Hints:
The chain has helices at residues 47-50, 216-286, 302-343, 371-405, 410-426, 432-435, 458-511, 547-570, 572-581, 612-751, 759-768, 782-795, 807-874, 906-962, 967-974, 978-1034, 1040-1081, and strands at 8-12, 18-22, 28-32, 41-45, 66-68, 73-78, 84-89, 94-99, 108-110, 115-118, 125-129, 136-140, 144-146, 151-153, 162-167, 173-178, 183-192, 195-206, 345-347, 351-353, 360-362, 366-367. By secondary structure, the protein is of the alpha+beta class.
Amino acid sequence: MGRSLFLYGPVYDQRGYFLLVGTVEGNIFVIDARPSSSFKIFGYTVSHTFSDERGRLKDNFIHKLLYEVEHSLSSAVLGFGDDKIYGFCSQVPYICSYLIPEKNHIGVCVLKPHQKVQTKQYGSGMINMSSHGLWLLTIAKCGFLCETFARCRSHSHQGHGIQYIKMSMDGQHILVNGKDDGTLAYLKWKYVRGTVSNAMCCGVLNSEGQRLGANLANEIFEHCQQLIVGLSKMVEKENQYLAASEVSQDAIKNEVRLFSQKRKEIKRGIKELSRTITGMMEENERVDPIAKLEEQEFCLDLEELERLHDESEEEVAKIRKEVEMHNLAKSYLTELIREECWNSMVVKGRALKCFHIPYVVENFPMKARTEEELQQLNRVVQQKKTEAECLKLRKEIVEVQSSTTMIKKHHEEEDEEEEDEENVAKDTSLPNYLLGSLSTDFGADTSLLTSQLELHSREEKINQIILLKDIIYKVKMAFNSEFDAAYKQKEIEIARVKERNVRIEEIITDLELEEKVWQPVFEDCEKPERALVVEDDEISLQKYLAPWQKSKTEMTTPFEMEQLNQAQASNARQRGLMDMMGGVLEVKKEDILRMVIPQPAFMAKAEALWSEEERKQFKEYEKKVKDLNEERDKYRKSLEAELKKLQNSIQESTQNFDEHLKRLFDRRVKAEMVVNQEELKINNLVFSLLLDEELSSREQFLNNYLLKKQEEKSKTAEAIQKAREDLDVFKEHHDNLVAEDKILDRSFKKEFSEISGHQKTHADVNSLVPYGERPASGKLSKDNFTQLMKSMDELDNISNMPEGLDPFVWEHFCTTRRAKVENEYKVKQKAAGLQEMTTFLRKRVEDDEAVQHEIEKVFQELLRLQDEKVRFQVNLTIQILLKQGQVELENFQLTLEYSDAILINKSIIEDLNAVIRAQGQKKVASMVESKEVHKGIYLIEWEHKKMEMEMEDLNQKAWDIQTLPNVTFFKFVFGVSWEQNFQTHRKNVENCKKLIKKLGRYSNQKDIANYMLSCNLREELVAVSERQDICNEMGSKLTCEKIAKERYGNLLKKQKLTYISKQQAEQISILQAEVERLRMKTFPALVPM
């Protein structure tokens, strides 16, 4: 059959007993799947016997059973026993198993879950069964592959998870295909010491074509061939599908043409029946009520109507039950959230807002401390107090011992000790910069805290953490008390404003103003308990009333209205008061603004017709109106003043509260800073504890490993000693055998040396018998020894005896030769055993050396770890408070490595800076003074040169005068007599000489001053050079160029840091928005019931 027919889709049954194959003719053959039976054919089926012309199975060929389950299933698989169904629920995270009833049923059968297992997968998924029927495999959109006992994530949920899965027949290999990520995952079980681990090795192949095998070329060739065959089969299948689709279309057309007339008749009959029933119902509406029928009597199929009614009732009951369970689950979740986030809180979280400014202050939500925490705190406090008392007693003992040795100075030392004790009592609380926080500003007691420089042991760190948690609790409680006081103050302020607003509303009503009264109220964040209570006005839907409640309301409403009307009708006093006096017994002062004086009746007539009496009445009326208007104005002004006063008082009180809340906000920021500081110290201590625990565990592991290696070293030493002893004994036996062999050699030479006539034969024999040099080592097996003995037997044959040799000599020769061969075989065996024992001993020695090297390595690691542990215990991480604005470097450099830094007192730096500033000021003063001196010298030199030039001009003029031809010209030029001019010139010369002498003296004084300044300058230069040497030794070169470069570098760093800070601020704002969104998303939604 396999040769003559084309087979399609060979399929095995689940147990592998039968093989189902299809043929071109449309037949299905059932074949025995065992190769031993040569694939025997049980039978075949004909397609037209069990399918119609559209290719569907006939109803009389199969038996259909319909089942209904509790949860909708996205995938289901049938068990091997044909009695169980496994389903993957699509709406709930469960995998259910259902037992199939043994008895057949008609209609719908409800299956209840036999087993229900929760899965950690989410999203729609599928369920599969392994080929051996022992494992269930589930895949989902989350990307996780789950088995009965294992779970593996092979794909990402962002790529819509897993699309298809295939497992090998033995269940050891799994292929998983992603949906949108283009990856194929290959999973294989790991074997660890004979057991299967639940971890999977995953190798991912991308969609671009990474190969699974090793030989890429062969696989590509085979893949191409398979692709060509697959394409040809696909074309054939498509042709068959097209042919089948054409046949099915023809069948549909035949059915439509065959049953079209019948369908039209049925529709026509239904319409006529509907018109008839509608007419009967309309006629029923027109008859008398006695003869009128109910609408249910017009139903043609009462049983069907009753069935539909029952189904609707069942559906309503089911939906009602689901809603009740859903509401119950919501209520349970609400109670859990309320218990965890509200009832368990000793201090509920709430906020407080200002009246006028956008300030919001929040308190610290706090839970009650457990009994265990309180016990630990009491234990630590008692331990600290005991340690303090012990320290005090030790000091007293030391003081008593010192007082016995120094009796003479006892009284003086007592006074000093009292002062020291007072100082110690004052210094028990550490300063803030060593304490590392500002918790003392909130009244926290830090006297029991251990100094950060003394926290070395694990117990001290744990006690310090407990005390720090207690300080955080006290700081929060201190701020919460201040917050509660402010909250009560706001309640008082709101009540006060409410009281004043009552009067303000009355005044506004009296003045008929259109102003709105400002009424402050608490918001939801200030009263969070509102979220737990649902008000009636928050419900937008109409309240559901039961039928009995509706009937009761309808019955009681008319009676209540009648009673109200009767009460109003019987109250004659109230009715008379309303009719006669407007509802009031006396006129109040507030009613002045609404009072109206009625006009006299005669004012309706013309003024000319008034009488005298009417004119007097009119004047009285005008006087009353004027007085009333004056009273109104006075009262209006008083109301306006009172209104303004009330508004100002409200404004002032609320502003004062806002100022107080601003201070409380600053206090809140400081409290949060203190809490963060203490939490930072706790985190540092916890990190040090974890590191210490890690180092201790590492040290313990190394100690155990060292003990194990030492035991192994002792075992190897014993093995080496035993091997050496065995080697010595074996070597002694080997030496004895070698000595015996040598004795045999010598005896053989002595016994057969007299035979000279047979040297040629003897040489031939020696060539045949292995009496020469033997190999140094070698091991002969028993087979080789047997073969050698057979060869010796052949050599000992009498036929091999040389001619002319005595048979007795030949026998003696053969016996000696055989003994020699046996002895050599024993020597070779001993040599081989000796070599093996030597190799074994050398290997044991190498193992011993390796173990010794490992021990030394562990010793070094242990020493290094101990050094690191000691260094860690000594090198503590402390938290120091630094006040901003003190000694800061202008041209700073970002130093990130502080390995060689030391802590020194700031007074040393300040003193050194003061000395540097003083020396710098002195240097600047001397430089300014030198500059002024140089300026004076330059000025004097300039004046001296000026005078010399003027003197030269005067000499030139005198020479010109002396060389003039006549006096008349001289007089004409100078305009005076020559004698007078000469006297004047001589006086000028004398004055110039006096001035030159004076300038000479002044120059001498300046030279002396310059000399003194040069001496001072030399001293200052020496001081500056010393200071420069000091600065050079300190590693700072204060040059203008370097300062400029550093400033430029600092500017660049500042710009870069500013840009980075802006980016980080934007990122932080985005993250804060995301955190707020997630917080609001995870905020407990308290659904109203």
